[in-house]
Amino acid sequence: MRAMVMERQGGALELRELPIPQPSAGELLLKVAACGICRTDLHVVDGELTEPKLPLIPGHQIVGVVEALGEGVAGFRPGDRVGVPWLGGTCGECDYCTSGRENLCDRALFTGYQKNGGFADYCTADSRFCFPLPAGYPDTQAAPLLCAGLIGYRSLRIAGPGKRLGIYGFGAAAHIVTQVATWQGREVYGFTRPGDTAGQAFAREMGACWAGGSFDAPPLPLDAAIIFAPAGELVPAALRAVGKGGIVVCGGIHMSDIPSFPYDILWGERSIVSVANLTRRDGEEFLKLAPQVPVRTEVHLFPLEQANEALAALREGRIRGAGVLVP
Ligand SMILES: [Zn+2]
Ligand SMILES: [Zn+2]
After folding, report:
1. Looking at the structure, do residues 206 and 172 belong to the same domain, yes or no?
2. Domain range spanning residue 91?
3. 24 C-beta neighbours (distance < 10 Å), count
4. How far is the CA of 89 from the centre of ligand 1 (A)?
5. Among residues 39, 50, 199, 209, which is most buried (max CB within 10 A)?
6. Per-residue pLDDT tens digits for 55-90
């Protein structure tokens, strides 16, 4: 099979011919139909996340078709279409795992980071962490639901029920969350890099009632804000944009340092919280909700062997919506 392989962090992925992996007990062998690219892949490739397995096949928004079953797999058959998310395995027995917070498990394994992912023709995955996918989504449009959608949904839930929601960084997750939030009857305020008029127009197209630059004040104080861009200076900006009792949710896995800020902008019971990974329950809930909205994903397709070009386009903010690799 072909695979895009990371030998070391900080370099380009290399196209390799590798043997098709064999599924171990409990695993599925999947023929990859599409794999979304995510900012987390950039953090892995660029070295901001420091514990990858090496060599590594990245990619954690995998839509695949079951080719073969490892020993003891129940509930799947060859030919089934499944989704593989970032959470690739947990210990199942720690305090986090047994209290509905498996996203925080210290022994969790992440797809395309500690396990090979979907930048390849085939991959294996622990069947207990794979999701059936809703019908009605072509493979390429289903792929971004698996991280942009899932982490976006978890961020939205943690942002609480407030009506006026700000979203900082208008990429793949934001374009999905905006559709869900407006369907729930909320107002979405989209914040992009200052001067990014194309990004602001995209936010309005997705349903935002207002769009502006990251450091602009919204017309009214917000109830909550979600930050998807990995820029620490957005935290004080978002604190200034939310009203008393407002919550600022950091939805990314990595962020540059947060500059110091006056206590004034946190005072009034404002809070800051991060969102880490996902639970399988998030996946089940969101994949049921997405077709009801219905969430439509805007995708930009790249052939598998152009993974480096796709990651560069994401890094430079040139992808409208979500980027997806197709074998
Ligand atoms: Zn655990
Ligand atoms: Zn991701």
Report:
1. yes
2. 2-148+278-326
3. 12
4. 9
5. 39
6. 999 999 999 999 999 999 999 999 999 999 999 999
- Whether residues 15 and 144 fall in one domain: yes
* 109 CA → ligand 1 middle, Å: 10
* 129 CA → ligand 1 middle, Å: 14
- Taking CA atoms, 277 is separated from 88, 139, 196, 263, 287, in Å, by 11, 23, 29, 29, 16
How far apart are the CA of 152 and the centre of ligand 2, in A? 10
In angstroms, the CA 249 to CA 244 distance is 15
Q: Of 235, 224, 282, 241, whose CA–CA distance to 261 is shortest?
A: 235
Assign 272 a pLDDT band (cuts: 50, 70, 90): very high
* Residue 121 sits in the same domain as residue 181: no
How many Cα atoms occupy the beta-carbon half-sphere of 12 within 13 Å? Answer: 10
Dist. CA 101 → ligand 1 center (Å) = 8
143 and 210 part of one domain: no
The answer to whether residues 175 and 212 belong to one domain is yes
Instruction: Evaluate whether 166 touches 225 at the Cβ level (below 8 Å).
Output: yes
Q: Are residues 144 and 283 in the same domain?
A: yes
* CATH assignment at residue 50: 3.90.180.10
| Shared domain check, 8 and 140 | yes
**DSSP assignments along 153-196, one per residue:** HHHHHHT-S-SEEEEES-SHHHHHHHHHHHHTT-EEEEEESTT-
Nearest ligand, measured from the Cα of 41: 2
- How remote is the CA of residue 144 from the centroid of ligand 2, in Å? 9
Structure confidence by residue, pLDDT tens digits, 196-252: 999 999 999 999 999 999 999 999 999 999 999 999 999 999 999 999 999 999 999
Rounded CA-CA distance 277/108 in Å is: 10
Look up residue 252 and give its two tokens.
């990314």
Q: Structure tokens of 132?
A: 């059936």
